Amino acid sequence: xxxxxxxxxxxxxxxxxxxxxxxxxxxxxxxxxxxxxxxxxxxxxxxxxxxxxxxxxxxxxxxxxxxxxxxxxxxxxxxxxxxxxxxxxxxxxxxxxxxxxxxxxxxxxxxxxxxxxxxxxxxxxxxxxxxxxxxxxxxxxxxxxxxxxxxxxxxxxxxxxxxxxxxxxxxxxxxxxxxxxxxxxxxxxxxxxxxxxxxxxxxxxxxxxxxxxxxxxxxxxxxxxxxxxxxxxxxxxxxxxxxxxxxxxxxxxxxxxxxxxxxxxxxxxxxxxxxxxxxxxxxxxxxxxxxxxxxxxxxxxxxxxxxxxxxxxxxxxxxxxxxxxxxxxxxxxxxxxxxxxxxxxxxxxxxxxxxxxxxxxxxxxxxxxxxxxxxxxxxxxxxxxxxxxxxxxxxxxxxxxxxxxxxxxxxxxxxxxxxxxxxxxxxxxxxxxxxxxxxxxxxxxxxxxxxxxxxxxxxxxxxxxxxxxxxxxxxxxxxxxxxxxxxxxxxxxxxxxxxxxxxxxxxx
Amino acid sequence: xxxxxxxxxxxxxxxxxxxxxxxxxxxxxxxxxxxxxxxxxxxxxxxxxxxxxxxxxxxxxxxxxxxxxxxxxxxxxxxxxxxxxxxxxxxxxxxxxxxxxxxxxxxxxxxxxxxxxxxxxxxxxxxxxxxxxxxxxxxxxxxxxxxxxxxxxxxxxxxxxxxxxxxxxxxxxxxxxxxxxxxxxxxxxxxxxxxxxxxxxxxxxxxxxxxxxxxxxxxxxxxxxxxxxxxxxxxxxxxxxxxxxxxxxxxxxxxxxxxxxxxxxxxxxxxxxxxxxxxxxxxxxxxxxxxxxxxxxxxxxxxxxxxxxxxxxxxxxxxxxxxxxxxxxxxxxxxxxxxxxxxxxxxxxxxxxxxxxxxxxxxxxxxxxxxx
Lengths: 508, 372
Known about the structure:
Chain A is mainly alpha-helical. Chain A is 80% helix and 1% strand. The longest helix of chain A has 38 residues, at 300-337. Helix content of chain B is 36%, strand content 16%. In chain B, strands 1, 2, 3, 4, 5, 6, 7, 8, 9, 10 and 11 form an eleven-stranded mixed β-sheet that branches. The longest helix of chain B is centred in the middle third of the chain and has 30 residues, at 186-215. The relative contact order of chain B is 0.18.
């Protein structure tokens, strides 16, 4: 079945093409040194690196505490606590950041309390991104803790270790792969975040790249600068990427009989709900409460625009999700059954490419040929393509984890019974993969629904996404005008995200 | 899927539209009233077909204009894209061989000047160009200014040492008292281009260094103009550097209210805790314009010109400028009620082309001085 390998190779080549276009552009950028000096690349490097590490630490600490309390502790309302701790992933960090600025601004309700404490502050961006991504760590660590073999702890207890010593000497070392993977995941996210750092005014690579693309009228210089900055960002992200891969690989081989949960005392319970309040209050809680309180009666035109944007975004995001899942299935199947396995890694390139960088790569590719300019430029295909590149890594991962558990012997059996190659996959593997495919679909869909920078740079003529709609109002401080679009976005993405998260926290 | 908006086309490119025209077509009997303007081609009768507009001006401020356009040209299907100046240059360039857009409305003069120089816009007829003063249009005749904005100072009322010039804002006495937007704000950059063009690079560097010293490490660098003005109104900062309409947005109301007459507006101005200071620097008040140009080779140039014709008519000027409380560019059209009259201060005489040329230098200088 060389045809499937050919298709998979073509798909991966298309996914990698925007990154390659940037590399090609880099070769033509003769003034790289001047760009680096002009953009203060050293400062960008330090700021972005600090943001990645601090956001990662915030997210991992909160995720670990929440996961520990909800796996080892038994208390009334545990399912609710789990749901609430997962809820920040349902709100886009850029919306959280906009509201931090809004409520603390000179006319905001919390100005007296907070002053303008957040704007331009690296720590604020770290906390926003850390809190918003903490559910990722929470999910990964909860799964890892549930798999921990309780016998190691029993042995340590028998040797006289107290509870704290057991955690430090036994539990933590066993969790290192999961802790590393979740830290790296958040750090990678922080490297590529555009919206939260933009709203909070923290100068990172992604923001510098976006400003070049959006504000520099010397377009040739802007493209060169973007290519140079993107390449540097990739270098910064590479170690996090490697750490993530290592952690995930190493985390797979644990297993054993978990320790049973112990009834939590009043102090423990207060601790749990304290952590929940700390996580939910400044993120999903704030966003929901503030959006509802900003809504003004009437405003039919605004609601009309918001529903228009919702309609278009739904169609584009579901197209992206459908294509991404199909591509992921093809690539993973070929990589697992036929090889080379490197196809999966190559298809994951979007993991380290921020939205504006993917957008630039897509634009460079399409503008390179007359055909592209005439038939592709300004169409929704570009945006859908960019979303696929960005979200494919997660789809690949979900499908890969699913396929790993399905032996190839089922397909072989089906073939000996006379099925064709494709027919044997459809008859045996596909039905078993349904859950993973659905999870991948929902993940890509939700990611696309809320994606911002590529949506701004690649949107087709005459329409815009829900995320762009609300961002445009927020940019000019028209927060009440932003509320309808924000509410619609939350109504769609929050349930979609919780579905994925709930499934992940159950099945792992 | 898509139940909320079943008729939204999504096959990309020219099919995806914001149905701006949807609510007018059903009216049917709106008479195709002749535009009042002189001899601009296609201005004297209703135009039809589809008009694709690239608008770098936010949608919020375009509504009254589109209402007017629909009234005059009920058969015209409007497809309006809202975005930013710089990416529109990319789009116009990429589509040079087969443009899909007809009309480009820019937020500032730099991008549209660049588009004109690049051959992306088609020269406008004298009947349109001549309606605005010479310094408010492209030197090559490819675009016209549509509305003007001024860079001004907002100060606390009764501030004893209130500045009268922009230059003074760099004075150390305003250290910790000066508010401004982040330096990446396009209007901030635009203001710097004026200083560069009028006073030269050395003076601009000194001025920026002073602004930097007065704001660095203070809590008075704000993400946007609206909170900057609000901070002065709340008494947090004493003075701030902003575009004039943000002052009026704060004092007269967030959204433009056509019912607010001159007396009511004056009452609000008198009661406000802040005042607008139109700077008396030697070079005059820094300003910029929104611009409009017809895309070279676009599918519907007649409709594009017809919209420019409306924009440059007195009612079009009001619809366009008043909604954001900017200054109309056509002589004899007043500013919105309450807004400082355009002849009440001295505008900088620097040409817009000269400003555009300073844009890259302004960005470089801001980075060099290190303003956040």
